[in-house]
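Hey team,

Filing this mostly as a record. A colleague (T.K.) asked me to run one chain through the structure pipeline before their review meeting, and I want the input and output archived in the tracker in case anyone asks later how it was produced. No errors, nothing strange. Just documentation.

Input sequence:
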Amino acid sequence: MTDPQSLVEQARRAALAAYAPYSGFSVGCAVESDDGEIVLGSNMENACYRLGVCAELSALTAASQKFGLRKITRIAVTGGHVGSDGSLAGASVVTSCGGCRQSILEAAHVSGNDIEVISSNGDGTEVQVLRISELLPLGFGPANLEDAGS
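Output structure:
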């Protein structure tokens, strides 16, 4: 497995490819499989705000295509603004929004792994590591649908 800081650096590079003309807040995500493969995603805004795509969803989709949700073990997310020197900057640690936490939880249920979520500030100098079960306790997942009757 990649060390957490290296995964954060890949997420920081992914953020530099974000399309964030409205908020100016670029987010990058790196998803790692159980055999060390890594895919990246970044946020993509839209003039119709609700149609934007979060970096985590972008990366989870890429992971699904590249190696499958069953193999996901870790995710790194970071964000901030792109400075005049072209690097990602920002002091606050960026954590996944509620919708992304739900999507990560779904991947955790599919994989059987309590996915590790590494959150970092844009500068990459502060890192918090939590499991998805800690970020979304009592989350709603596939097991909650057992009473659906189908």
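Quick notes for T.K.: The longest strand covers residues 72-82. The chain has a mean pLDDT of 96.
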